[in-house]
Amino acid sequence: MSNPEALHGARRTMTSPALRPAPYENDPFMITWAESVCRDLEQRIARLVIALNLLPGHGGEFTPSLEDLPAPDPKELMPHQQRAWEELRGLVFLRDAMVKRCIDRMGATTTGELLLDIEDELAQRGFPPGADGMDVHALLGLKPAAKA
């Protein structure tokens, strides 16, 4: 484009979706609902990780990525453990979808604050950092909140 006027006009009309305000960024009902759903998901995931002995540093290893979640050998697991693995995989998938939806609807900043609040609450309830496979403080380079 040799016409600077045309180039300037094109720049004004091209906006990244990431720069647009999120539609529910300041909606208290949406934020409260998302926090409640995410908290319940994170707490159940953490309990399953502990029950399946997957905590890092405790003889197991858990990763939040669904692709990296190992498929156990069914012969080595009892039936209740197999069900727990299946539930864990489903909840990790659901959590990932929920976080993506929160980012799309409420923005990255609001979603990040929401996840930090949930992580702090889980720590206050006695869950170790990263028990849900997502250590948000470490991911963002922040110090964990002090236990109350």
Can you give a write-up of this model?
- Helix 2 (28-51) packs across helix 4 (108-124).
- Helices cover 56% and strands 0% of the residues.
- With 148 residues, the chain is mainly α.
- The chain starts with a helix and ends in a 9-residue tail after the last helix.
- The model is unreliable at 1-14 (pLDDT under 50).
User: How would you classify the helix and strand content by structural class?
Assistant: mainly alpha
- Helical residue percent? 55-70%
Mean pLDDT, all residues: 75
Instruction: Report the major sheet.
Output: none
* Proportion of strand residues: under 5%
Distance between the termini: 61 Å
Radius of gyration: 20 Å
> Which residues sit in consecutive blocks of at least 5 with pLDDT less than 50?
1-14
Number of strands: 0
**Outline, from the CA principal axes?**
globular
Specify the number of helices.
Answer: 5
List the helices and strands and how they pair.
Layout: H1 4-13, H2 28-51, H3 79-106, H4 108-124, H5 136-139
